[in-house]
5'-nucleotidase (Goodea atripinnis), 346 residues
Amino acid sequence: MQKAGPGSLQVISDFDMTLTRFAHKGKRLPTTHNILNNRLLINEDSTKKMKELLNTYYPIEIDPSLSPEEKLPYMVTWWTEVHELLIQQRIRKDMLAQVVRESSAMLREGYRVFFDCLAEHRVPLLIFSAGVGDVLEEVIRQNDVFHPNLHIISNYMDFDHTGVLQAFKGQLIHSYNKRDVALSHATALRELHGRPNVLLLGDSLGDLNMADGVSEAQNILTVGFLNDQVEERKESYINSFDIVLLKDETMDIPNVILRHIVSPEMASLSLRGNQSIFFLPHNSSCFACSRSLSSSTFSLSSLGVITPSLLRSWFWNMSATISSMVIPGFIRPFPSETCSLINSPN
Ligand SMILES: Nc1ccn([C@@H]2O[C@H](COP(=O)(O)O)[C@@H](O)[C@H]2O)c(=O)n1
Ligand SMILES: [Mg+2]
């Protein structure tokens, strides 16, 4: 994928709990459907009913002992009942921006690097979501990353001429029918043709089918975010995705993969707190990072071929020089296990 470069690449990603965070400071964050569970839009009874439906069907959605075929009818019931309830509540289009603003939904840390990098290199990003399209668009817009390379397949609301919800458009999309939906959209997504390499991101086993509509796919690299019921589901995720990220609320790994594909000549670099971490470039050269004191720009210079001692000294030097650097999207606490690994004599 790296040899073929960004011109052959497309990214297909799920939205809820893949591009958005699952939790923050120990609190569950909402999906696009749950963002709509706001008293500005729906009454108290419906709020209760939506929660009951979530408590009934979410455990089925993630139950590792049930097959996708067994889960399917329950998913159809869950989505259908919630959509009917939202229609009955006569949701207003002009309130959506406000409920998104009031919600605690967050894109994963490092999201700006991800969205901007894809746009800069003209790599199409297909967001394939069983959530609510109008809400997910608003989340992306409010985070300022709605770029022209974005394509979205989702459940879109149909509003009447006064801006009141009257139906949902097109085929219902739920967690376990993404294959059918992918196949039915295959010809429409012309911009994605001729891009045989796919980076696929998802948090559900149903997301693995999102690339089924890609004609003549050559390589599909799948990354699975395992957010919930980790121990129970780990085995099936490891057997199904190429890379499994356990309770990782960042876009760090997708960003490193992208950096490797779009600019393989540069060290892929990420700075965290007052420590630093960098990812090796494909030719095994190492780069040092320094910041100009007069501006916020920073430069990379080659240090030559990596050796363990060079690595260690680089880390020590960097941690001293970058402690005050602020590079949005890159700074994050550096895990202590990684520090001790880097600083160990071997
Ligand atoms: N009423 C519902 C229905 C579904 N969900 C969750 O939304 C997720 C689907 O969106 P993706 O972007 O991940 O495809 C799904 O995993 C459900 O858990 C919900 O919260 N409420
Ligand atoms: Mg999801």
Q: What stands out?
A: The first strand starts at residue 9 and ends at 13. The pocket of magnesium ion (ligand 2) is lined by residues 14, 16-18, 203-204 (CB under 6 Å). The first helix runs from residue 32 to 35.
